[in-house]
């Protein structure tokens, strides 16, 4: 009997041992199926958001932003800058390689940036020259001072490409097989709106845990069904009004990750119209709008008030300027002091269903200061064309801050196509421009002046950043939290 018991104990122990060994040997997934509706037009620095998203995964930058919005080295080891911020000297890390194993040198950086300068990409308009005196040194000389060049370097369209691959005939726009980032393109099935990616074993931060990626830009069924039946592992940038969102919020095995997207929602007022040329009218409108009410009515409370476009997600952010000015009593006082104390009719152009909800909320609030709002729906492209040409009264618009740089705001306040307010005063734009060419202390002082002036003049009436969601299945983990719509594939891994 004792022998039988011992035999059973041994058998059980062996079974447990084999079971543990089997569990340990179970392979961890290295593939990923992802969906995003941000489909690129091409992959050769096209200016679309879809291309920018893919670029972050295909190519490396000298510097990048981490999840805390800090600028950290990627391909660069360090840099120096002269006193007037016109000459930047970057040192590359040792042993850098492209995805085919070929060396990545300063000549590739010089070639890439020169190519982009010749293509007249926006980020390079202040570049005078780019030189590569040796394999690890890049010298950038600017036409004018720019103390925000370093954050500019983190933008997707300042990524580094291979000179040899491009000159050797690589199809950069459709099949970039030699890249400096975490992934390369194995295949682009344009007919089915699908891109297949392979990991780069020579990536500067180490080969990603996810080795094979399928990126879908169109689905046959719903996003929720695809996540629940295993067709998808990750879906990016789901808007608050997405029809799948209520189901995903309740579904077991699905993690939702909310964050503010990078588009600033605001009302532009055409100052070529007499009522908006009046400073007190614009101040009254800003004070009459309860941003929390608008967010609740328009996007079910899924947003963050944003009277100014300054947030912690952009360089140049200073705390203390982004509080809502909502104060109905003060709004009435401003209207009484204006040239239009008895009010007027605002013709507010909108572009979609969410714009309709915003406009209805604005209409309700502006009645308190005797401004009647006539809502005029337009096709999106017509709305934008009207705003750019000045053929509008007021318009509800969104302005992308994907670059994350305060320099991106300057065109809104400077003479040119994007000066949507049409006002003659460019002092705010001048202050923002001057802030790029001084040291940090003086820069912050200039920005304080600019932000104070934004809140006094209200050239644009800021409303909110909208909350969006990424969704993933349980078991897929992130090394850093999601901070923007630019999903980072090398940030993902499967838990054991």
Q: Any overview of this molecule?
A:
- The chain has 15 helices and 19 strands.
- It is α+β, with helices and mostly antiparallel strands and 496 residues long.
- The strands form four sheets. Strands 1, 8, 9, 10, 11, 12, 13, 14, 15, 16 and 17 form an eleven-stranded mixed β-sheet that branches. A four-stranded antiparallel β-sheet has the order 4-5-7-6, with helices on one face. A two-stranded antiparallel sheet has the order 2-3.
- The N terminus is likely disordered.
- Strand 8 and strand 9 form a beta hairpin.
Topology, pairings included?
Elements (H helix, E strand, L loop, with lengths): L1 H24 L5 E5 L13 H10 L4 E3 L5 E3 L2 E6 L5 E6 L13 H13 L8 E8 L2 E6 L6 H4 L10 H5 L15 E7 L4 E6 L12 E5 L6 H6 L5 E6 L5 H6 L3 E16 L4 H4 L1 H10 L2 H9 L3 E3 L22 H10 L6 E7 L2 H14 L4 E7 L2 H10 L4 E7 L26 H8 L5 H18 L2 E14 L2 E3 L13 E3 L2
Parallel strand pairs: 1-10, 1-11, 14-15, 14-16
Antiparallel strand pairs: 2-3, 4-5, 5-7, 6-7, 8-9, 9-10, 11-17, 12-16, 12-17, 13-17, 18-19
Helix pairs in contact: 9-11, 10-12, 14-15
Q: Any idea what the radius of gyration is? A: 26 Å
Uncertain ranges: 1-23
What structural category do the secondary elements indicate? alpha+beta
Helix-residue proportion: 25-40%
- The count of β-strands is 19
Which term fits the overall shape? globular
Could you tell me the strand content as a percent range?
15-25%
Gap from first CA to last CA: 41 Å
User: Which sheet architecture does the biggest sheet show?
Assistant: 11 strands, mixed
Tally the helices.
15
Mean pLDDT: 88
